[in-house]
Amino acid sequence: MSKSSIKNIGVLCSGGDSPGMNCAIRAVVRTAIGEGLGVYGIQKGYEGLLENNIRELNVSSVGNILQHGGTILQTSRSKEFRTPEGRKKAADILKKRQIDALIVIGGDGSFNGAMALHQEHGIVVVGIPGTIDNDISGTDYTIGFDTAVQNAVEAVDKIRDTANSHARTFIVEVMGRKSPAIALKVGICTGAENVVLPTATIDYQKIAGDIDRGIKRGKTSSIIIAAEGEEAGIGYTIQKNLKDQFHLDAHVCILGHIQRGGNPTPTDRLIASQMGHSAVKAITSGQNASATVYVNGKVSLAPLADCLRKKNEFDVSEVELLTSLSI
Amino acid sequence: MSKSSIKNIGVLCSGGDSPGMNCAIRAVVRTAIGEGLGVYGIQKGYEGLLENNIRELNVSSVGNILQHGGTILQTSRSKEFRTPEGRKKAADILKKRQIDALIVIGGDGSFNGAMALHQEHGIVVVGIPGTIDNDISGTDYTIGFDTAVQNAVEAVDKIRDTANSHARTFIVEVMGRKSPAIALKVGICTGAENVVLPTATIDYQKIAGDIDRGIKRGKTSSIIIAAEGEEAGIGYTIQKNLKDQFHLDAHVCILGHIQRGGNPTPTDRLIASQMGHSAVKAITSGQNASATVYVNGKVSLAPLADCLRKKNEFDVSEVELLTSLSI
Amino acid sequence: MSKSSIKNIGVLCSGGDSPGMNCAIRAVVRTAIGEGLGVYGIQKGYEGLLENNIRELNVSSVGNILQHGGTILQTSRSKEFRTPEGRKKAADILKKRQIDALIVIGGDGSFNGAMALHQEHGIVVVGIPGTIDNDISGTDYTIGFDTAVQNAVEAVDKIRDTANSHARTFIVEVMGRKSPAIALKVGICTGAENVVLPTATIDYQKIAGDIDRGIKRGKTSSIIIAAEGEEAGIGYTIQKNLKDQFHLDAHVCILGHIQRGGNPTPTDRLIASQMGHSAVKAITSGQNASATVYVNGKVSLAPLADCLRKKNEFDVSEVELLTSLSI
Amino acid sequence: MSKSSIKNIGVLCSGGDSPGMNCAIRAVVRTAIGEGLGVYGIQKGYEGLLENNIRELNVSSVGNILQHGGTILQTSRSKEFRTPEGRKKAADILKKRQIDALIVIGGDGSFNGAMALHQEHGIVVVGIPGTIDNDISGTDYTIGFDTAVQNAVEAVDKIRDTANSHARTFIVEVMGRKSPAIALKVGICTGAENVVLPTATIDYQKIAGDIDRGIKRGKTSSIIIAAEGEEAGIGYTIQKNLKDQFHLDAHVCILGHIQRGGNPTPTDRLIASQMGHSAVKAITSGQNASATVYVNGKVSLAPLADCLRKKNEFDVSEVELLTSLSI
């Protein structure tokens, strides 16, 4: 589809919500209107698209939303859209509404859906990486990560007060599924004594040794940050093993959904605004299947194909930094 | 012991830590010094007393602590002190140090220990109610409650973002053991659709009906606040029952120890400061076994004997208020 | 007007906005609907009433507002309403709309307007005290005070970081006009070395002496809390006098409007909810000119006539507490 | 001086304090000890160095400081150190203490001092950029910037509540002296209607036109972010001109020192930790006059000579982004 023929764009959020999505929506809407495009908000992700849950957005629709967490468009996961029939139906709905391009804010799963929609039905698509897990290939940053880390760090700072007051060990489980990103940054930023990453085998001997060494050098508490991995609850496993193997008592806190919400941090607001703006510019400049990415400290465009995988690597030097600073 | 003969006082925290304890310690220390008394900080509660873990505090010892959660004196629970032999040993240590009066910041258990120490060994004691649970008889307020509620409310505000974005039901479990105080105030202050109190039988029919009604009238989410009761984990029970009996999906968040920490709110700072000040004045004015209490909106003194029980009542009109406002 | 004849009520905010007003509005609307009444939101205070800026509110109109500062009804100050002609016009508009009772959320000025409307035109009125200044006669609390104090205390905590790092004196000017309430509570809660109240003559000799004494005993900083008084800017006067008379350097921070905004604290949410609920109950129980007040730690009803004056007294024991704890 | 001969290093903060300095100090101390070096904390910057205000730091000296704003080493500006005689004296003190290398956390002025000390007396120096203004050449980031922006954004979010409630225009003056960095990021992140940068001529016609257009399209408030420039107070000038030239009323808020303090954000904690670690590694690897910088999204080392100038440029595309999103 040539650049000039696009008249209307749609925007939706898909997968887990993340703080900053509203900033991206606001930037999409206002940039689109500034470019003379019509812009349609699709409620509840691909699910809502299939239900024709769509309304036109204007400049005021996105007023006073950039400071709030969550997403005014709501989000969901859709089974039907994962089928070719579902995507055919979605494409028909978009075409009937004369929506020629779709901006999808979400994770790698949402991007794969967008790519299929593009390949099978020629819809112009742009992906904006939005997930607190920071685990999408091709970008150093995904919207919501900074706020999630901020929420978790504030929580651990509070837990540290109690840990110090009782001379206790705490295991704090943070979100991120198989991504180590939240756990690692939270660990460094809270001075955690240990961090347990999702892909690693847990070295209980080392953890127990560190706790013991900490007590001997006069530390009043120990904090272990654990990435949740495939399923929440790993904190309890660690607790049991420390107790069974080393007679060490530890308390468990699973931070859970408090990490996802709240007012987005300035960094999330800025990057989300830049990405939303950039996504519309990608469409008006004739890109077909692209994604906004954050590379080398800047927002730019990349082929959507580069951003379809999960990314769970981490920089081992960051683990060393954590270890060398929490002595 | 006559008023004039008291030269030194001790101060300790006992039981769970609560934000604002540092404000009370600061007030005790500086008021005592202003009154010409020596003041000794006993580390780690009755346990530390039995270990003679005591140091003299001066004006600077408590500088820049009032804004921080936890307690610089640390706290603990002691088994030994619950025995007559333990208390005899504690009294001997105090007498040897010429500490004639003891200020105990803690809950009803800590107060019972103080009362026994007074009755068996003639130590002048004053109790300052410090627990986030707000469950001590004889006082409308205990230090830490306001901060705990604030922490929980901020957390639920964040969870509401995600709940709205996904059109979900969340069960948020708050602290307070058998006390309904935190759950009830948090429920009203977050516009929770339901609150489950520790003493009540859970009416699943009503909860399910409320969720259903909320969806029908267009609500984008439901939040149920559950008091932890005897043991953390009730949230999972509620989740299972809603699923099994009504096929309702709900997410669980156990807020846990993030409720205990963090900078104390102004209300906790003020009341703790007034109570710490008042506790020293009680000693210098010749009181024997008293407690600082908050009644009718003001800090005053009461017999310690009035404050030895747990208080788990609640005002049913507050439940009605919550219900009538969350329609 | 008899109890049974009231079918519709109006609600407006007047004067300066204060955090928690939204909670009161929500409580008014939902309680009224629960009582079978129609409820109308009047936008922009008496000004909006005179412009017939009125819309019916339903249960959803006040969804998801209790956690936000400001007021969805907006507020203003009106000159026209202060004239008998203005109030006649307002009463006519209300009557034409069949709004028989009016709930006014605001300060003493707003209450005087409500009282005149009642006396001159028989409109049933209820006042809900809403101002951050906590300066209305007849009630110990006004909605917004706790949040304003919280905002100011958080700000001073931050300023203390810099003050300590540079060994500086800071003068922090807080809101409250001629009311000493914010300044006094903030002073105690931040461990301020001095507090300057609006009605007192400023004793520069004492302030300079305190700073000097603090430095000698090893304090790393001094903070003076100044109530703004009639007009913002007193901080600069204090700064100049300390410099001119004692060669003391001090930095000035005027906290300004950051004190008014932000998510209301739990205490503001609770009391505002109770007051909004209680105001509607006052109407349905046949009260004519009443106000919701907070006395002895509880929300109750009082004659509106008791709440028409400004209250600028303070408890001198609180100043003594501040002084004795900041040694 | 060859790599192997360095046995002790000193660390100081200089110029204005910035949140995250404590993280850098902690990282310097613990990395140095891990490398087998002695490490000395110099209190109060170059001033304290000249006063021999130096103490050895150990692992525990920097425990529980990373979450707090300000700097435990305190900071200052020194006139004497700007003279060759002052630097000679400083070098002598360092040599007498066998401190062979000095890590300076501060801004461009502090770096110039370090460079002179290196050139004149052969002291090994490393600069760590620490200033909220983000205005040092050679690095994209300086410690404290993220927290300052976060503090300012939270404040403007609160002011927005009042602005909306009263349909007002607010001028919010932020820190940064001649650097546009804080103003620009805060402007984008708060959806400000205008931003006034320190180097630009103020286009009152445009500002007034924007406010007018906003009112016409239904906006409930306008916020103008103004960079303080050479001296605080520009907000009042803007207010006067809008009033005199366009009869527009606007309120002024000068955020002031609340921007400098408070718990550092995760980003400041992380980058400061990495920089502190990296600075010690620079010394042990034989660098002579280097600085830790943040370029392309990563911490690395650069010649100190690259970081001696103030940097006040800004990306004009960010102004365009702000303008296009605040329509």
UniProtKB/TrEMBL annotation, chains A, B, C, D:
The active site is at residue 133. Keywords: Allosteric enzyme, ATP-binding, Cytoplasm, Glycolysis, Kinase, Magnesium, Metal-binding, Nucleotide-binding, Transferase. Transmembrane segments: none annotated. Its EC number is 2.7.1.11. The keyword Manganese does not apply. ATP binds at residues 16, 77-78, 107-110. It is found in: Cytoplasm. Catalyzes the phosphorylation of D-fructose 6-phosphate to fructose 1,6-bisphosphate by ATP, the first committing step of glycolysis. Homotetramer. This is ATP-dependent 6-phosphofructokinase.
